[in-house]
Design goal:
alpha+beta; 5-stranded mixed β-sheet; 28% helix; 6 helices; single chain; DNA-binding; 4-stranded antiparallel β-sheet
DNA sequence: TCGATCCTGTAG
DNA sequence: CTACAGGATCGA
């Protein structure tokens, strides 16, 4: 599920459901999801603490605790972090869970076990900076900054957009959608884009993410699992072979960095 | 900068 | 059975 819009939706629900709760008990079913990978550490460092606030940095969820600790949760490909009404009735594939003072449960589900829960001293979370670039929905993300980042990078545009150290939060879907909207070829080196095109890409990122946050937030209020593309009208992602809504040419799929990239060969030229 | 790797589930 | 999955990291 999780690119920036979905992670943001998860955060909003946690602010509603988890902030103010106290962690009564912690259970780690799969130590692989914890960092440090000592299964007891998460419990030792978070039991008894109150959840004070929920923040988001890129795709990272930060749970601020009352004991000077912060839990950094990364959902990776298939993770989810939700509050359930009764900790006794846990969904399948829960890899770690927290019993809350109210009897509710905060559960980390993750079929592929790729996600991570990392315990930090709150003072050390600043070490995230450096690995996580500018927040694309913040005021810090300006056309000027984006031009500067672009000018410094020879990466293909798609890989650049997915590089969390540059702009934090885009993943495989929204990177492809932003490139389509801006009519940029996914293999085009960033450095070689003309300034008006860089600016167009900037606007596309902003627009795609704002629209997706909007609809993800409402989709996530609904019970049940909304799935890929159900709430966001994807134009190219996953649409190999289908006609482009703009020009009618068939959407192509190529591989970049071991991932699939979808694009329209008519609208997005090199 | 590329490929392998972490894991498991699901679609074809 | 194989291919592939909305992510990131590590070593070559």
């Amino acid at each position: 599920m999780p690119e920036l819009p979905e992670v943001e939706a998860v955060c909003r629900k946690l602010r509603r459901d988890a902030v103010g709760e106290t962690i009564v008990m912690v259970r780690v079913e799969r130590p692989a999801v914890t960092r440090p990978q000592v299964p007891t550490q998460l419990a030792v460092e978070s039991t008894g603490a109150q959840i004070l606030a929920v923040e988001r940095r890129g795709k990272n969820i930060l749970l601020r605790l009352s004991n000077q600790r912060t839990l950094r949760v990364h959902l990776r490909m298939t993770g989810n972090l939700v509050v359930i009404p009764d900790i006794r009735f846990r969904p399948a594939l829960v890899r770690a869970w927290f019993e809350l003072g109210s009897g509710k449960g905060l559960v980390f589900e993750d079929p592929r076990v790729l996600g991570k829960i990392h315990v930090y001293a709150t003072a050390d979370v600043g070490s995230l900076e450096g690995d996580v670039g500018v927040e694309p929905l913040s005021e810090a993300f300006t056309p000027a900054l984006f031009r500067t980042l672009a000018a410094k990078s020879r990466q293909p545009s798609k890989l650049f957009l997915m590089d969390q150290r540059k702009v934090a939060g885009l993943g495989n879907i929204y990177a492809a959608e932003a490139l389509f909207r801006a009519r940029v070829h996914p293999e085009k080196p960033m450095q070689r884009l003309r300034t008006p095109v860089v600016d167009r890409l900037y606007e596309a990122i902003d627009g795609v993410l704002r629209e997706a946050v909007e609809s993800a937030a409402s989709a996530y209020q609904m019970p049940g699992v909304a799935s890929e593309g159900e709430w966001f009208p994807v134009k190219v992602y996953g649409r190999e072979g289908e006609p482009c809504a703009v020009c009618g040419r068939r959407i192509k799929r190529i591989a970049q960095g071991g991932r699939s990239t979808y694009f329209c060969p008519g609208c997005q030229r090199k």
